[in-house]
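[Solved] Which block belongs to which protein?

Original post:
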Amino acid sequence: MTTAAQSSAHDASGKGASGPDRPQRPPRNRGLKDVPRRVAAELRRWRNRRRASPGWTIAVAAILTVILLPVATIATLALTPAGDMWRHLVSTVLPRSLLTTGLLLCGVGTLTLIVGTATAWLVTMYRFPGRAIADRLLVLPLAMPTYIVAYCYAELLDYAGPVQTALRNWSGATGPNSFWFPDVRSLSGAIVVFSAVLYPYVYLTARASFVQQSVCALEVARTLGRTPLGTLWSVALPLARPALAAGVALALMEALNDLGAVQYLGVETLSASIYTTWLQRGSLAGAAQIATVMLILVLMLFAVERMARGQASSQHTTGRYRSIPFQDIEGWRGYVAGGLCLVPFILGFVIPALVLVGPALRHAGDAIAGGFWLAVMNSIGLAAVVSVAAVILSVVLGYAARAANNGFIKPAVRLAGLGYAVPGTVLAVGLLVPLAGLDNRIDAVMRATFGISTGLLMSGTIFALVLAMTIRFLAVALGSVEAGLERISPNLDAAARALGETALTTLFRVHLPMMLPALGAGALLVFVDAMKELPATLLLRPFNFETLATHVYGFAALEQFESAALGALTIVLAGLIPVLLLHKAVAGGRAGGGSY
């Protein structure tokens, strides 16, 4: 009895050879046959311990490599010896281009900051006749590409244009020097044209910031004796400084990227210098060196924007929100305020639109005979492919940051979004060289192996153009995707994983159906941006491939504005819907309230 009890206790304690809780050692005679099974079991345990597959990290690294390829190429070309080209550029081209670009950016930054901030403050904090309409109209110039507005104002204000012609007839002047008239084809004219189109970037960011600011802080400033202007200067503007810096930076990036407007107005910026050095002087190395200087300027803009933002931040100290207490502007002052808000809209949208409508209707036949419908189809097809590619890559990047949280993915996703800051001319130079080198290698292998020539498979084809536009507009789609993912509770991820779903199946079965509105918004924004993109399209398009942007550019370069009007008006109409959707998101962004 005692021996049996002791034996039972010994077995129950786990010390017995056949205890149920003690893992049995595999017999030694199994040898190497059990190695694959044990390795597979360890891999399964390792995967179960991880939150997501390493494939997400690999995918993000691959996307980031492609995005950084143009920058790496530009740096390599700039460091490659090219004879006396760099010395020639430094002594002749770069000083003038740098000075002109700097003056253009300073002028555009100042004007957009003043106009965008002033109109946003008036619309957000005051009630006056026409306020609600002005709020929607002030964003419409964003639908106008800068090069189209430049064509319109040059057509309107040139010596042979209707304005100067009417002034000569009225005054009886007979010669070009009979009276002074501002020259739109100048640096000052370019500053006004760019500011009239780009101020909505500052308006939207400033308006979003003013809408979100604490009413209590503004009221405290008023009770302490501050005037409305003093409240704006001492309270609202410091709180809005990060938003204002972001808006001005976006406007400056667009001004730096432009090619069509500065060429047409005769302003030699860095972007125009890259184009002329590459295509007219036949020096790709020289264009790459100018592009390097342009990239340095972009980095400086980012640094200045970060310094302007500083460490400024504001938080709400209460969960209660009150409607903004509008101050009424009555009498003639209210009409003056409404008129001041309409001036930027008139300059940036109404006047160019009126200049376009007449010629577009009168010369529609000439435009159609000049390849309008083919350009429309090419633009729609190209923009659709770019929008789909950008949304797919954005989903991979955004979901990787959510499902595989590690020290590499989140910084990599932020870096991938910087492609929007790289001008189209720089992207074109940076992509053409590696794609052409890859084409040459493939062609050499095919010649040596099969005796056939493959020609250009990537460079000089639609592929290069799609790749450049996808890199440039990826940040636009990524913002929409990240906003859509933020609205989905992490609890849904945990529930799906508990029910046996993997990270990939959770994405397809849970997240994508819930993100359809965000995906649609991102695709629409990318579609419109791709429709009006000119620099990259002009430099990378295949032969005889015309989009609406190049169609308009070609007629404008030949001074055939009437034939370009229909294509320009089509681009403008395509951009109206996303601009209005963007305004709706900003105006309705105050927590606890509706539209303001």
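(Second protein starts here: sequence line, then its structure tokens.)
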Amino acid sequence: MSFLRLAAAQLNTVVGDLSGNVDQILAALSAAEAAGADICVVPELAIPGYPPEDLLLKPAFVADNVAALEKVAAASGHCAIVVGYVGATPSGPGLSNAAAICAGGRVVGTYRKRCLPNYGVFDEQRWFVVSNETPTLFGVAGAWVGISICEDVWFSDGPVAQQGRAGADVVVNLNASPYNRGRRNERLSMLRARVDEAGCAIAYVNQVGGQDELVFDGDSLVVAADGTLLASGAQFAPDLVVVDIPLAEDGGRTVEGKLPRVVVTEPRAERPRAAPPVLRPALRPPLSDEAEVYAALVLGTRDYLGKNGFTEAVIGLSGGIDSSVVATIAVDALGPSHVHGISMPSRYSSDGSRHDAGVLATSLGIDLHVVSIEEAHVAFTSMLASVLGREPSGLTDENLQSRLRGVLLMGVSNAKGWIVLTTGNKSEMATGYSTLYGDSAGGFAVIKDVPKTLVYELCRYRNTQAVLEGLPAPIPDSVIDKPPSAELRPDQRDDQSLPPYEKLDPVLQGYVERDRTAPDLVAEGFDPLVVDQVVRLVDGAEYKRRQMPPGVRITTKAFGKDRRMPITNHYRPPAPQEPDRG
């Protein structure tokens, strides 16, 4: 049986870095050629980086991106390359999310995305025009190849099915598909359904890397015409996957409909049957759920800091579980010499928490500075007393302590050029259990989209991984075992202000991520009192969340681009009526 040797290049591009992105693309093409590949495929909008957002409103940027495409085309040879870029529409104004196929030093053909997503984090209809062009099949080394872009493959009886039924042997699908939990299984199930519908193989090539809140996980997938998973790329790392895709013999299936055909490269007289040394086993076992999330947080943090010019990070270490996991992620992302801890105890900080912060810093190999806020707390209390007519107490005094810590961290950030990593989790941000200009002050919120219950799971996962590698667990057991507390008043515990996290997080998941109303959640069996409290807290904290720093997105709906609720909002669905119990 004949085959098409395909190289799937999952690249970590940078939005706006046209020359750097071209360098990555050309390096992938060179490696693909060395591996004897017939075709190399790189991700969606690989030349400008994804998502370019309102850079697309700058004509000069679009023109420069087209010039960059010409450099890629000029470097192409016997191995064809399919590369994503921003193109003009064939007729009329507007831009297209496009892919060019290049070989022999020139652009041979173009495909323009036909299904533009406009939900969640996607706003493609803001910048691009939907293409209604008839797609072309391209002859590559004796195989007929169709091209599609990201969302095109998700629609039943859509562009991919059309190309497959018209005789495509393989449809390549260029992606910039962000990660969220459970995404891999969803993608693979969809691809198998599309393969069954199209009757041909599909090569799903995905971007990797962090871009602001988004993390792209790579994990490119190549599925044969019979639904067999032939190859998968690395998760959360750049990769070049070279795979031989079997081609059906002539007459093996019925062709329905006709599409234009263009020969890009001629069939090879002799195909190399032996794999070159660079070819490796093409299937990788998928990561576990906790491993995926942890890897996403590490990659998102590393790329946000690195791509924005930060080499050092500083974290307020309280001895609690949130700051402990953030510090551990930061060390895994940057290395211990680039992470700095500051312990800022108050009169309410327990000896155990102070000790735990020190043990964690020693375990991670990071420096730890201890700066008591007591003197400043006393001074600010006295200053406020002259305005309030009494010393501040209650929430005012609690938030004062948090804001003092924020001032210290931001002062260090200004003096040293270190970015402050905030330590608030999704449960706290959802309910407003955080202090504006206090614990929310900083440049990047690592666990902003991580519910509190998942924070515990990630700590246990990271400790287990360390032990399996013969290393000491970085996060002390005492951090995981003690009741969560902000330690801003005597004997404070989180469950004095919030429902227990094991009850809180499922309600938050329903209300925030599934967009269920309070009556919906009560009807699903959640405690009405818990639902009422949680909904009130979430709705009342919208103004706070608008002022939070960006953070890594790991769920289907994060606070930020995903969820854009009005701050001024009086919508309250009526409560469900109690059943008549006679």
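Accepted answer:
You had them paired correctly. Confirming on the second one: The two ends are 75 Å apart (CA to CA).
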